[in-house]
Amino acid sequence: SDINLDEIRDTLVEIARTAGKIILERSGRVTFDDKKNAVDLVTEVDKAVEVLVSDTLRSKYPQFEFMGEESYVPGETQLTDAPTFIVDPIDGTTNFIHFFPQACISLGFAVERKPVVGVVFNPFLNQMFTGVAGKGSFLNDEKLPLRKASKLSLQGSLCAIEWGTDRDNDNYEIKVRAFESLARGLSQGGGFVHGFRSLGSAALNMSNVAAGTLDSYWEGGCYAWDVCAGWVILSEAGGKVVGGNPGQWETPIDGRVYLAVRGADAREQKKYIEDYWSHIKGK
Ligand code: IPD
């Protein structure tokens, strides 16, 4: 296609810096409302940043579609094959409210539902993660991954997990069971994975897997805006995103359950994913 992806990345980086200033200024000083339940939170800053982003993108790229977390209407908003900006104005809203320094703006661009540009900016740590399909991904000026471990295996890995906001269905029980199994090992007892981390932001979890500072990230219940930008950053670092159902490895961006693993050779990746699923299934 003749879409200039580098130019789109540069535009998104500029927007991210502007939004980042607002996020920093307002973090820890906002009131919040509930969305679908008492742990799914939104603030006026999420809404204001989304308006700023959509106004800027719509005037610069009127020919492209826009999908944003705060303007999404369940059952109505549809992701299509058209080139689409997919945006989460603040990913990690709970952190933003609590002034916990892991929140970001997540700006993605997808063509035919394939994520092709991703910009994830954490203004607290001044971390600008960027990725363009076919051109690699970066943390500020450093090429990802930052760290290439010699071997990728579930045993001894550092895993991101999130409780998410859907806590009243099977999803929760599956998570509790899988975490226990991953922490204690299937039959051997004692430690198995080195540890769990919850950054509280899907985009930052994925970007840290891309960097090699985390080995994997698993969550059920994500939306396209949680994963679009991080997907590009991770794939360009040699990582892989797979679907939530055991064996179903090809996953669309508008799926809901994801496992993201860091780059390694394809055989190690496959083994890691298979081992992970065996813990989710409890076998
Ligand atoms: C949330 C974060 C969180 C994840 C939730 C998301 P938000 O996004 O990414 O880590 O567990 O599933 O909804 O609401 O902060 O934009």
From TrEMBL:
Enzyme Commission designation: 3.1.3.25
Keyword annotations from UniProtKB, A to Z: Hydrolase, Magnesium, Metal-binding
CDD domains in the record: IMPase
Pathway info: Polyol metabolism; myo-inositol biosynthesis; myo-inositol from D-glucose 6-phosphate: step 2/2
Cofactor annotation: Mg(2+)
One Pfam short name: Inositol_P
Name of the protein described by the UniProt record: Inositol-1-monophosphatase
Species: Wickerhamiella sorbophila
